[in-house]
Amino acid sequence: MGLPEWDGELTSVRHDPETGAWFVIGVHSTRLGPASGGTRAMVYPGVEDAVADARRLAGAMTLKMAAAGLPMGGGKSVIALPAPRAEIDDATWRQILEIHAANLNLLGGNYTTGPDIGTNSADMDALRTLTPHVFGRTTAAGGPGSSAPMTALGVFAAIEAGVAEAGLDGVEGLRVLVQGLGAVGADVARLAAGAGAKLIVADVDPVRRSVVADAHGAEVIGTGEVLTRECDVLVPCATGGLLTPAAAGTVPCTVIAGAANNLLTDDAAAEVLRRRGIVYAPDFVANAGGAIHLVGREVIGWSAEHVADRTRAVGDTLTEVFADARTHGISTVEAAERVAARTLSGGPLR
């Protein structure tokens, strides 16, 4: 397996012939505390792709934890499934979770995990019976429940900060395009509609599209139109990699702020957005509400009210990021990385 250089601390890769699953854990940094990040379970073209995804996401988690002022490092789990999750029987899934728990135990608390794409709070309940290195359980099992509402709250705070940076007078009346209407995207759409936005939505699932459109009077567009439809605010809440440098050069919007991880394919895309004057809220800041909720409630022991306050402060962090980017003539991604770097180098937690 040929893999590129990586600046993280550890990559663990394990294959289980019986289930056909590959298990990858990327620990990027334990500088601020135990590495933390969700478990993603999905089909990948190959194990190299799963490893690359785990490493990329783990690095983003390091930045997210630092920028949010959380006493945790960055990590990520990826389970490369042999078939889509819906096609895996319960017994096989239980076996996959048991192997994942064993891998977590081998790391001895240096990495803790929660839900992500392909896993949920019920899976974390099951894992917690096998390992203590889990958060994000259901409320019935003593956990804080879904992180989606706080993720959405943080994204909406990012939208408001981006709109202010762009010199626009609030969200009311703006065309807000939400791509991806899962638990987070649907809640962001609700918040935007409640603030008076003219909502435009896109999702591969027709049921989710119709539910949100009916609830908020949203206009529905095809997923292939997301990067070409004129709007004021683009809110990507699906998977990452949406904006290549070429796409960044043509996307017709003023502000971009969403929940998707690794939204930009590279730093060049961020520079293109800067040169075009598009306000971009870096994803690892904008979507930090979920981590604040899960880590804050279940690991640190914060109250729900404190978690909500810390999540709304995502907007304050972005105001600082935008100002730094303006002052130094750099992209907002570079400015946000500077905020995280100051914390990682020994600065105060936010």
TrEMBL record:
Glutamate/phenylalanine/leucine/valine/L-tryptophan dehydrogenase C-terminal domain: residues covered: 147-347
Keywords, comma-separated and alphabetical: NAD, Oxidoreductase
Transmembrane regions listed in the UniProt entry: none
Presence of the UniProt keyword Glycosyltransferase in the record: no
A Pfam family per the record: ELFV_dehydrog_N
The keyword NAD is annotated on this UniProt entry: yes
EC class: oxidoreductase
GO molecular function: L-leucine dehydrogenase activity
EC number from the UniProt entry: 1.4.1.9
InterPro entries associated with the record: Aminoacid_DH-like_N_sf, Glu/Leu/Phe/Val/Trp_DH, Glu/Leu/Phe/Val/Trp_DH_C, Glu/Leu/Phe/Val/Trp_DH_dimer, Glu/Phe/Leu/Val/Trp_DH_bac/arc, NAD(P)-bd_dom_sf
The protein's name: Leucine dehydrogenase
Organism: Pseudonocardia parietis
CDD domains named among the record's database cross-references: NAD_bind_Leu_Phe_Val_DH
Family statement drawn from the similarity comment of this UniProt entry: Belongs to the Glu/Leu/Phe/Val dehydrogenases family.
